[in-house]
Every structure is written in C-alpha cells, then in structure tokens.
Amino acid sequence: MHIGIVACSAEGAALCYRTIAHEGAKHLGPHAHPRVTMDSISLAEYQVFIDREDWPQVGELMLRSAHTLAQAGADFLICPDNTIHQGLPFIEQRSPLPWLHIAAVVADEARRRGFHRIGLLGTKWLVASEVYPQQLTARGLDYLRPSETDREAISRCIMEELVNGIFSAESIATHQQVITRLKEQGCDAVVLGCTEIPLIMSDENSPLPTLDSTRLLARAAVERAIKANR
C-alpha cells in the first residue's frame, strides 16, 4: 500500500519518513520500503490557526493535503504532527482516505508494554487537548498532564528550538526535569507527544521509559502497508 504523509513541521516529518525507509528495509529487504508521498503545507500556515486555537481551520489544511495525497495515489494517511490532530475530528468524515491516528498507535503500544499511568509531553496545545486522553482512557490507561509552568517550558523548547533543528543541552535538561516530576507523581512511562522530541529524548536519557510517537506511527504505517500484500 501507498503511504501518504500529511506533513506540518519539517524536522518531525523528516524523521517519520526516514523511519519508514529504515523499517521497510527490515521487512522487505535492503533499500526497500512501501511507496511514500508527502504533502507539506508550511508550518507558518498552520500556526496562524494554531495560535487562535481554531482547530476546524487546522483540519481544513489537513484535508487539503489529504486530497493532494489521494490524487497522488496514496491508500491511507498518517500525520506525524501530534498537535494538529486536534483538527482531524472536524474533517475525518470528509477525508478521501482513511487515517492512522498517532495517539491510537501510541496508546496501543502503552497497553502492550504494560504501562498504567502515562505522562504527556508536547506543545502546550497538545498537552491541554483530549488527543491522548481519549485514546488512553479508551484502553483503560491513566494519564497525567505536566503543570502549566512545565507545559510552557516544553512548548518553548519545541517551538523556538526543535522545529528549527536546534538541539541544545538546555532543552534536554528541561525535558529531563519535567519527566522527573511526572515520575515523582506516579507515571511509569512518558509520551514523546511532539514529533521533534524524539530527536533529543529517548530511553537512554529519559528518567522514564519513552513512547516515541513519531517512530511508533512510522512503524505502524509500514506494518499496515505491507500487511495488505500478505
């Protein structure tokens, strides 16, 4: 099957694409992966509506990409940007193609690994939303949002540094401190719920086990794409 990527931020979309290529080779042989087409409306266009928290209009931008990818021959869609999933419910019924939901993929993995209380990391818009809570609670999992102060600190790291390809020691330290506080409040895992967070955080430097939303989505997309041919 042909995977369509609805891109928003460049760094995260690139990580998603690279992961699809690497995972494809594991299943299909050297240098092989399912066909991939990406449509990328600029983050600046999205940000106009994100700043207003106008999620229906965010959804309309996603739908525009969905139609472009359908015309290109994609069979299903993924979006490696967590925040703009808030726009998906407004347009999903009008979408020309089905979507693989990033938070559903992550919640399935959390349940599979036996976690119980999941800390949420991401932009301030994502963490305040129901994107992850809906999927986690549907699977009987608890969750915890960071404090308002911690949400703002993480969001600054993401929007001022990570989306611009800046990966600083200070951002790593900020994430580690926030994750430590989530651990102290009873979390046994943390969602890296921004496409770019996995570029600086992993199980190797996190105080809690991580659920890497970008790579989990890419792997799920590959599995869905190749399963159709088996």
The major β-sheet equals: 4 strands, parallel
Low-pLDDT regions: none
Give the number of helices: 10
Helix content: 40-55%
- CA radius of gyration is 17 Å
Q: Averaged pLDDT, please?
A: 94
Which CATH architecture of the largest domain would you pick? 3-Layer(aba) Sandwich
**What is the CATH domain class of the largest domain?**
Alpha Beta
CATH topology tier name of the largest domain: Rossmann fold
Provide a descriptive summary of the structure in words.
The protein is α/β, with parallel strands linked by helices and 230 residues long. The chain has 2 domains: 3-101 and 216-227, Rossmann fold (3-Layer(aba) Sandwich); 103-212, 3-Layer(aba) Sandwich (Rossmann fold), CATH 3.40.50. It has helices at 10-28, 43-52, 55-71, 88-91, 102-112, 124-128, 131-137, 148-161, 169-184, 213-227, and strands at residues 3-7, 36-40, 76-78, 99-100, 117-121, 142-144, 189-192, 210-212. The strands form 2 sheets. The chain has a 4-stranded parallel beta sheet, sandwiched between helices. A 4-stranded parallel beta sheet has the order 6-5-7-8, sandwiched between helices. Strand 1, helix 1 (10-28) and strand 2 (36-40) form a beta-alpha-beta unit. The mean pLDDT is 94.
Overview features:
230 residues; alpha/beta; Rossmann fold; 2 domains; 4-stranded parallel sheet; 8 strands; globular
